Amino acid sequence: MKSVLNKNIIVILIAFAAIACDKESDKELNDDKGFCSYLNIEEISQTIPIVNEFLSELPDSITKEQTFESLEAWLNSFSCDVNAKILYGEDLIWGEEQMSGVSISVKDNDIMRELELDFSIIDNAITYTQIAGYTYLKQDAIHVKTQYAEIDKVFEFINSLDFDIKEIQGGTYLSSMAADSDTLEYIIDNLKSKPYTTDSWVTGHLNWYNANIVIFLRLYDMKNNDYQADWKEAMNEYKLENYSSGTKHIIVFFIPEGTGEEWETNFTEYEFVDWAELSYTNYTIR
Question: Phi/psi at 139 (nearest 5 deg)?
Fold first, then answer.
């Protein structure tokens, strides 16, 4: 009787093991099918939960390097060509090469892009237990250093070209309004509320030497004629004048991807351009 009972238990355990294996096999098949079906730039965000589920199943004690290695092996186990690889960078303190992340290859029309897994920031620290999405770089911009301090000349230049503007750097302005801290805060707060500025790039200080307020800022998306007009109105409202001896403006143009070297040459042929340099745009996928 006891022998029969033991045999029954063994059979049940084998059955449970088989079911567990089947479930694991089904999960792997579903992950493979799901991940591979989304392996393109338009749908790659759909893979974020799949990656995070895998990360959640790794041991709590695992190191960052072991997480990268596990991700690389798991991603490359899919039937599609994920081409996952570990990225390396130089440690800023010790100067040694170390693992810095993991990337995959994703098709964007006819271009294969390298997307880096963007690990989540939790409590102001990077965590390797989940990703927020992906990031990738495109060489689709160019910095052009002009000899212009006056914004009117900058606008005239950008309006003559059929390129969108990523940003205009180097803006330095003097305000003849009362040079006190309340006025400085008032101007900065109002300029930060503009749709073509950002909080981090509007700042200023009191210049007691010439009794002026000095404002520094960057302007974004200024191919927009309404933004140009609004900025000129703001300059009048806050009595801002271009600081002629200040930093000259650098314009960051968006250009067709892959034409950077051509436009480096073209822009330096302008007599008022000091230099032109290829630039990259960091895109985020969430």
Answer: -85, 80
Instruction: State how far the Cα of 12 lies from the Cα of 2, in Å rounded to an integer.
Output: 15
**With pLDDT > 90 as the criterion, what percentage of the chain qualifies?**
76
Could you tell me the sign of the dihedral formed by the alpha carbons of 152, 154, 155, 157, in that order? positive
pLDDT tens digits along 96-106: 899 999 999 99
Residue 277 · residue 264 · CB < 8 Å: yes
pLDDT tens per residue across span 12-39 = 444 444 444 444 555 566 688 889 999 9
pLDDT in tens, 186-204: 999 999 999 999 887 899 9
Average pLDDT over residues 60-89: 96
Q: Which two tokens stand for residue 17?
A: 């093991």
Distance CA 35, CA 82 (A): 9
Q: How far apart, in whole angstroms, are the C-alpha atoms of residue 76 and residue 82?
A: 6
